[in-house]
Structures are given as C-alpha cells and as structure tokens.
Amino acid sequence: MTFKNLMATVCLLFGISLFAQSQTSLDDMVKDWERSKAYTKEYLDAMSEADYALKPTPEMRSFADQMLHITDANFGFMSAITGVASPVAFGEAEKAKDKSKAAVTKMVMDSYDFVIKNLPNITAAQMNEKMKFFDRFEITKASALAKMLEHQAHHRGQTTVYLRLAKVTPPQEKLF
To answer: Which of 45, 111, 144, 154 could tie 74 with a disulfide, CB 3.0–4.6 Å?
Structure first.
C-alpha cells in the first residue's frame, strides 16, 4: 500500500468516525427532546384546567404563560438555528387569547414536535457554525441547542412550584 493510499484510507476512516459520532449525538438529542416532550406533557396533564391561570405571586407568569414561554422559545430557537420558518411568530404564543388547558397543551406539544422534526436536519458541519443569538451573543449552533434544552428544563422546573401550590404532586423526574 502506498503512502497516498494509506492516507486516503486514514482520512476515510476518520470521516466515517466523525459522521458516526455526529449522528449518535443528533440521535441522542432527538431522544432528549422526545423525553422532554413527554415529561412536559405530564406537567400539563397534572395541572387542573382552573389552575392554568395560577400565579404564585402577582408579578409572576401564570402556569399557562410559563408553558407558552417554553413554546415561544422552542419555536424561536429552532427557527433561528435551522432557518426553518416558525409557524408561530416569536413571542406570540405567550400572548395567546385562549389559555385553556387544551389550547396550551396543543401549542406546547406542537413546539416540541417542531424541534424534534427539525433536529435531524442539522448536519455535523452546521453544529459548529457560529450564529448570533438574541442579536448579542455569538455562539455555535450546538451551543444554541444546548441552551434551548436548558431553557425549557428551567421553565418546566419552575412550574413544579405551581403544581405544589395547586396541591398536585409533580411528575416523577425523567432523566433517562
């Protein structure tokens, strides 16, 4: 085997390895989002219709508004990362007139579906692309995806207090 053939083989194997790692990473991300969707659905289901308007203090968001804030971010972040047009303008979900349990649940689930549908279309090369985030921060798309997952977990976690105030036991944690 010539040196040129050896180098071509090494490069090919390295490329296959990188592709496999990026694919596993994307597969893992999709699984994380599917799990997060199911976990959030349990929160939405656990809260009574009447308590969707619950605010722990007057200046805080209601339970419905917390969930719709997650919705806005899921749609907005994924649209910014992928360039795919969001079906909901950024910030509009939280302004929705209908904040019934059914309407909120549908919007929230639609936002998770938007993320899950578009995640597999991100290539390994795109993960390392830099993007402007909130017109202030320059981060990689991989970092933006991590921030997006952290954001929805943070706000869902805040609603644990809402459930407790409504005398509802929060759903069991879903790490895996």
So the answer is: 111
Superfamily (CATH H level) for 3-165: dinb family like domain (1.20.120.450)
What are the tens digits of pLDDT across the range 55-98? Answer: 999 999 999 999 999 999 999 999 999 999 999 998 899 999 99
Residue ranges of the domains in the chain? 3-165
